[in-house]
């Protein structure tokens, strides 16, 4: 390489892998590839790279093998992004330097020991189920400013969820880069940047992935306790509504087919980095080769890929049905759309935009990549 690269190689809990950080991107790569990359980046000649690797590993690596790695793998790692890095969430704003909140996060770090974590997670989950589905619900009452109160409370619940991730990460020695708010596709979303957790073992990563839901269950339990105190019928009803919303938000977060907590739990539990990409590649290649690849791929990946295909097909069906129903409702009620309110036009426009968005996503997923 003719110019000096700025990069960082860090160990992970897995002795055979490392994290390579370069151009603001992180790669989860094997140790041998990282050593070849490191030596090549220092402009060592090929003979010296091969000799150094053979000496370190007491091996007999072939020069052609090392040359092929340098030719095919390293250019992918060193390529400078020409556009802004694509992420699941496009950030609007974020809180950085989370070390400032270290005292607060250390105060609850004891909650994330593996045995205590899974014990409490199970207990709080059962408490949530008991109060929401088995006990008598509070009487519905009118609450002043109910809608804005619930909106603000939902925002608070989501913030608590992200604090759970951040605290669990901090308790394992990883300070999150930031907590922020942005857009996930077309939906507003809060997020916690947990890029550095790849250094940890998969067991610890799974705990961090579940920590947001864990905090929500704890919050819900507090709301249930406040209901028991019976402060007032209005507050009882409000606490129940908030706990219900929080519970279903937690369940939604466990959906493994969107890049929410459930997705990362599956990816970390079965050691499948880039799970979405791997599953999409498996589906596309399987169609090309009459499903021969399904016999060779790992069972968790095959199960996820097939489930993902079924789920997204169902979502696509729902979107198509929604768009068609809106179109039919719009044009059949009044000729040429006469006599409609602004809201009717907004719903029609949203249905068309949703349709276009899904078609665009499908096109991006199936179009062949440039080589």
TrEMBL record:
Has UniProt tagged this entry with the keyword Amino-acid biosynthesis?
no
Transmembrane ranges, per UniProt, are 116-135, 147-168, 206-229, 235-254, 301-325, 345-363
Q: Where in the cell is it found?
A: Endomembrane system
> What membrane topology does the UniProt entry give?
Multi-pass membrane protein
Give the Gene Ontology MF terms in alphabetical order: peptidase activity
Q: Give the protein's cofactors.
A: Zn(2+)
Give the main location.
Answer: membrane
**Residue stretches making up the Peptidase M50 domain:** 150-228
For the biological process aspect of GO, one term held by this record is: proteolysis
Q: Does the keyword Membrane apply?
A: yes
UniProt-listed Pfam families:
Peptidase_M50
Q: Which keywords accompany this UniProt record? A: Hydrolase, Membrane, Protease, Transmembrane, Transmembrane helix
The entry's family comment says: Belongs to the peptidase M50B family.
Q: What is this protein called?
A: Site-2 protease family protein
């Amino acid at each position: 390489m003719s110019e000096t690269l700025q990069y960082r190689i860090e160990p992970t809990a897995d002795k055979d892998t490392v994290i390579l950080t370069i151009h603001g991107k992180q790669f989860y790569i094997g140790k041998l590839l990282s050593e070849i990359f490191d030596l090549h980046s220092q402009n060592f000649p090929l003979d010296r790279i091969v000799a150094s690797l053979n000496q370190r590993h007491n091996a007999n690596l072939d020069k052609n093998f090392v040359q092929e790695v340098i030719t095919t793998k390293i250019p992918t790692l060193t390529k400078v992004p020409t556009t802004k890095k694509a992420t699941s969430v496009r950030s609007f704003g974020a809180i950085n330097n989370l070390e400032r909140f270290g005292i607060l996060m250390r105060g609850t770090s004891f909650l994330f020991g593996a045995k205590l974590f899974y014990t409490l997670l199970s207990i709080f989950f059962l408490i949530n189920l008991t109060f929401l589905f088995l006990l008598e619900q509070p009487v519905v009452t009118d609450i002043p400013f109910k809608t804005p109160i619930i909106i603000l409370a939902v925002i608070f619940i989501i913030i608590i969820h992200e604090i759970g991730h951040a605290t669990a990460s901090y308790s394992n020695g990883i300070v999150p880069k930031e907590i922020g708010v942005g857009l996930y596709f077309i939906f507003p979303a809060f997020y916690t940047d947990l890029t550095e957790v790849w250094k940890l073992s998969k067991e610890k990563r799974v705990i961090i992935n579940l920590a947001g839901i864990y905090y929500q269950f704890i919050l819900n339990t507090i709301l249930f306790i406040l209901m028991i105190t019976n402060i007032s019928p209005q507050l009882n009803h409000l606490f129940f509504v908030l706990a219900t919303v929080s519970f279903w938000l937690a369940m939604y977060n466990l959906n493994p087919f969107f890049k929410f907590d459930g997705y990362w739990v599956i990816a970390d539990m079965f050691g499948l980095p880039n799970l979405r990409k791997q599953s999409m590649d498996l589906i596309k290649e399987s169609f090309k080769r009459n499903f021969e690849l399904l016999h060779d791929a790992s069972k968790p990946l095959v199960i996820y890929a097939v489930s993902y295909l079924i789920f997204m097909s169902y979502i696509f069906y729902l979107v198509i049905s929604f768009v068609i129903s809106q179109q039919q409702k719009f044009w059949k009620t009044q000729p040429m759309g006469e006599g409609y309110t602004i809201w009717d036009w907004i719903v029609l426009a949203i249905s068309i935009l949703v349709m276009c968005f899904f078609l665009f996503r499908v096109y991006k997923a199936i179009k062949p990549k440039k080589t």
